[in-house]
Amino acid sequence: MVRVKRVYDPPAPDDGARVLVDRLWPRGLAKEDARLDWWAKELAPSDKLRRWFGHAPPRYREFAERYREELESNQLMARLRDLAAERPVTLLYATRDERHNNARALVEILAGGSATPST
């Protein structure tokens, strides 16, 4: 099971492995407060893609497809899949937009489905 949560939300016992999937460290958050198992910044979108997206909801679908392409050759995807097969995983992100972010897209990519946000 893989789920998504803002890194600023308090850790919960059922989070399982807590994996931050942002390239930049979240502002104002102490590392010990994040309680991470893995900061997977190598799985975050490239700076170029992140800047192009700019968290603009109309660009989300194309962002998710470009992100999927970036991850195709990323060796760490296998590590993330293995981790998710062993225990629950919570992908953490910092942005305020809970529906249009890289963690949400990554969950859909892992599931092999579309990265369209649910309502």
Order of H and E elements: EEHEHHHEH
Overall number of domains: 1
> Termini separation (Å)?
20 Å
| Main β-sheet, spatial strand arrangement | 1-4-2-3
Shape: globular
Description:
The structure is a single chain. This protein has 119 residues and is an alpha/beta fold. It has one domain. It is built from five helices and four strands; from the N terminus they run E-E-H-E-H-H-H-E-H. A four-stranded parallel sheet has the order 1-4-2-3, covered by helices on one side. It is globular and about 35 Å long. The C terminus is likely disordered.
Question: Could you give a quick summary of the protein structure above?
Answer:
The chain is of the alpha/beta class. The protein has helices spanning 31-34, 47-53, 60-71, 76-86, 102-111; strands spanning 2-6, 17-20, 38-39, 89-93. It has one domain (2-91, 103-111).
Give the SSE layout.
Blueprint: E1 2-6, E2 17-20, H1 31-34, E3 38-39, H2 47-53, H3 60-71, H4 76-86, E4 89-93, H5 102-111
Helix pairs in contact: 2-3
Keywords:
119 residues; four-stranded parallel β-sheet; 4 strands; 5 helices; globular; alpha/beta; single chain; disordered C terminus
